Prior knowledge:
Among the domains are: 59-109; 148-242, Nucleotidyltransferase, domain 5 (2-Layer Sandwich), CATH 3.30.420. The protein is 47% helix and 16% strand. The protein has helices at 14-26, 34-39, 44-48, 64-87, 97-108, 118-122, 124-141, 144-147, 190-204, 218-229; strands at residues 149-157, 163-171, 174-182, 209-215, 238-242. A hairpin with a 2-residue loop joins strand 2 (163-171) and strand 3.
Amino acid sequence: MHMIIQTSSRPPSREEEEAQYKSKKSRGFFEPSSQSQAQGTPSTSSQGSGYGGIGSPALRRRTISDFFDEGCRNDVDSKVYRFLYACGIPFNVLRSPYWHEMVSAINDTPKGYKSPGYDKARTVGLDHEKAKISHSLNRMTSSWTDHGVSIVSDGWTNVKGKPLISVLVVSVSGAIFLNAYDYSDKFKTAINIAEALLETIDRIGPYNVIQVITDSAPNCKAAGAVIKDNTPTYFGLGVWFTH
């Protein structure tokens, strides 16, 4: 009888694990039950151990490093949970593509990375991200003069019960969310809706606007008439209503 004593911190090799398994089996560590012997199947104890199923391609032995890796992952998950709970961050943030982009970037960064501090995040970092977004929007808005845009509006109610009207600008370059008007302190009358859309037209530039698209509610149809009455006669604006 012989025994291999593992003195190194490295995981045991396949040959060393098989030698340990045979040594323990020869001393009666893995005695199969009579039923298992009769059926020719390995015993429950041998399957449950880290050495069960040697030679079977369907089973992969778990090494010590596997358990360490799993423990590290669980510890990191715990830190994420605590951050979410302590800061009151909605769980939907875990569905954000920016969350997964951030985690991937942290995984790929050199060891020793430290997150930006409070002051940097609210000053330099904020200005940097704003500049990047402005640059991306400028590439989209540059086509407005050549191809024109459609102004699309839609009324809805947010999770706090506030009535809103969202306004988007759609062009060949894509859609841009422009504004959300809060109607908590006023009614969605034709005049109020028209004022919001006329403000958007002035902001975009009347010559760049091809059409305004809104829903078919009576107040929106009346707002369309107000918009046409308040635009220059040479500005051939079309107002379309969708269900």
